[in-house]
Amino acid sequence: MRFVLAIVAFVAAACMIALGIAQRTVFLEPASVSVGTTVEGNGPFTVIDSDALLAHEGAQTVSIRGSGDTFMSYGRTADIEAWLGDIDFTRVSYDEDAKELATTVVRGQTVNPMDQARVPEVNSNGLPATAPNPNPRGSDLWLEEWSGENSISATVNVPDGISVLVATDGTAPAPKNIRLSWPLDNSTPWAGPLIAGGALLLLVGLVLYLLALLHLRRSRGPRRNLPKGPRMPKLPRAPKPKMIKANQITGAQRKSIGRSSRIAVLPVLLISGLALSGCSASFWPDMSAPSTASATPTPDVTAAQEEFDELPPPAVTVPQLERIVRNVAVTANEADSTMNAELLPARFTGPALLERQMNYQIRAGFPEQALPAPIPASPLEIILPQQNSSWPRTVLTVILNEEDPTIAPMTLVLTQNSPRENYQVEYAITLAADAVFPEVAPASIGAPPVAPDTKFLVMEPDKLAAAYGDVILKDTESEYYTLFDIEHDSFVPQVGVAATAERRAALPATTDLTLTNEPGPGNTVALGTIDSGAVVAVNLYQMESATPNDNGTVEFKASPTKSLSGVEKTTKGLTSTRSDQLLFYVPAQGSDEKIRLLGFAHSLIAASEIP
Questions:
Q1: How many angstroms separate the CA atoms of 340 and 349, rounded?
Q2: Which residue among 33, 116, 219, 490 is least packed, with the fewest CB closer than 10 Å?
């Protein structure tokens, strides 16, 4: 019976092991599924639509092949189409019926009125001039981009509403060969248990076989007493065999002994190898998989989700803004180190651009002038993109200085005027040492834009610069003084009434000092906070005139004003203008809080002799 059980165990073990191995070999499903197409024509741009990327579940591997330089990027479908504008392109979509990729040619839309760079010019014949297509490389709209020689392959995991743009340089034909692939779950969770169970059963069969042999050997002994016969004579004692040393064993004997040891070790090696072959996670059932059952969302959660889905998307994503800020930091550092103002317009505009341009001019004649506050590349402490699917777009971010934590954080307000323009820094403001930034929405939601003339704040944003300027000139006599938190304001003591009185006292009695201010040309930017208030960036110009009152001559020592104006002495006087970039928190209407200054930048931008 033991032999029968051993044979059954051996047969069952062989079947289980064979079935487990077959699941990982002959019965193994493919590891991925892919579809491909060859784009016809010589169009410069190809867009792989979102439905093609989501034709199967899982991460998407996009492979393109062409000739020469190739380019690929992905971003929001609406952003890609806005960037293409009036340019024809080929759309790659997924045909559900045919289970393959399909291509169609899409005619470009009307030129975006905000995209001034794309307004067609008129040639000498009065006909619209043909403008070259833009190069897609380096656009801030892309969430990520790749470049390569002849071919590119990248794996992404994009949600609905994201498409892929394929091109070369915007002029040459786009790569024609496109292939999409997705991973498939070809795990065999029963292969491991079958192989391991077969190995265990093989071991059980081996034990049963050995027990059967032992039982058979014992069963061959005498079963009954036999009658005694005549006693046989004793035989002579045989001589004891001599001990044979290992070096005296012949070749045949060595082979016999080696074969026997291998026969004994074979089952152990077989069992160990089969057990180790099932160590891969794809060989075993996943016991950590969460339950698929989920609670039905309550009506309030569903309504909140629907309301969230209806909001405009944030202007940028976090990785997108991190890449933009890195590019801004590189441009700023290179321009500051070389004092090359021609590099600035690519990434700066408005008050931030003017501050650096004038700083370089001042340093040319007055090297002691400090550079503008550096712009660190990371980390981004606060990210507040505007909720906006059109243009212009705005985003605010607060950046810490990783190299020197003692340096105050830098606040950048960036704007993008059209799809084909990159983000530019409009305000670069250093946060005040004791500034308490208001609570804002997460970057994944963004901040609602606030109209400059809104009545829902304690003060309209477009009146903020003039009101704060009035406080600087009049101090407590200003009608707006009680609206501002002057107690915690670190800028008014530097430029206010008390500071002006000290400067007048330091001048000769023959020189008069006159100060005025007015809102600057910088745009008023306001982004909503969670408590219905707003973070507001404004521009203020402060003008100062120093004139002799005795018809004498005013002389100027080496200074930024002298460097910028080129005037050493004058009988008419000298006027100078300083630009203030100011960042405020403005509470909601009805709040008991006051308007707080969060940060400022104060720089000389003009100086000249009074005509």
A1: 15
A2: 219
Cα–Cα distance for residue pair 139/419, rounded to 1 Å: 9
Higher pLDDT, 309 or 166: 166
By C-alpha distance, which of 238, 59, 226, 261 is closest to 157? 59
- Distance in angstroms (rounded) separating the CA atoms of residues 79 and 185: 33
Mean pLDDT in the chain? 83
Encode pLDDT of 72-130 as tens digits.
Answer: 999 999 999 999 999 999 999 999 888 899 999 998 875 444 444 444 444 454 544 45
> Are the beta carbons of 37 and 90 closer than 8 angstroms?
no
CA distance from start to end of the chain:
123
Q: Angle, nearest 10°, between helix axes 497-506 and 464-474?
A: 50
Domain coordinates in residue numbering, the chain:
1-27+192-214, 32-117+134-183, 318-609
pLDDT in tens, 291-315: 444 444 444 434 444 555 578 999 9
Q: Which two tokens stand for residue 479?
A: 């009608």
The CA distances from residue 25 to 20, 31, 180, 199, in Å, are: 9, 12, 25, 18
With beta carbons less than 8 A apart as the criterion, state whether 400 and 421 touch. no
E-assigned strands of 157-237?
A: 162-167, 177-183
158 or 260, which is more confident? 158
For 456: left if phi > 0, alpha if psi spans -120 to 50, otherwise beta; the answer is alpha
Higher pLDDT, 340 or 230: 340
Q: Which residues pair with 396 in a beta bridge?
A: 384, 413
Three-class DSSP labels, 520-563? CCCCCEEEECCCCCEEEEEEEEEEEEEEECCCCCEECCCCHHHH
Among 142-146, 150-154, 191-195, where is mean pLDDT lowest? 191-195
Local confidence band at 164 (pLDDT 50, 70, 90 cut-offs): very high
Task: Calculate mean pLDDT across residues 439-443.
Answer: 95
The long-range contacts involving 285-291, CB below 8 angstroms and separated by at least 24 positions, are 285/189, 285/190, 285/193, 286/187, 286/189
Strand partners, 383: 397
Task: Determine whether 189 is exposed, middle or buried from the number of CB atoms within 10 Å of its CB (0-12, 13-18, 19+).
Answer: middle
Beta-strand ranges (E) seen in 85-143 are: 89-95, 100-106
CA angle 386, 388, 392 (to 5 degrees): 90
Q: How many CA atoms lie within 13 A of 565 on its CB side?
A: 25
Enter the tokens of residue 284: 């075993």
Whether the Cβ atoms of residue 278 and residue 189 lie closer than 8 Å to each other: no
| Contact assessment for residue 114 and residue 418, using Cβ atoms and an 8 Å cutoff | yes
Query: Does 529 have pLDDT greater than 90?
Result: yes
Per-residue pLDDT band at 31 (split at 50, 70, 90): low
Quick one: average pLDDT of 456-467? 97
Partners of 416 in the beta sheet? Answer: 393
Report which of residues 376 and 509 the model is more confident about.
376
C-alpha of 20 from chain center: 43
Cα distances (Å, whole numbers) of residue 319 to 129, 142, 331, 440, 443 = 38, 10, 19, 19, 11
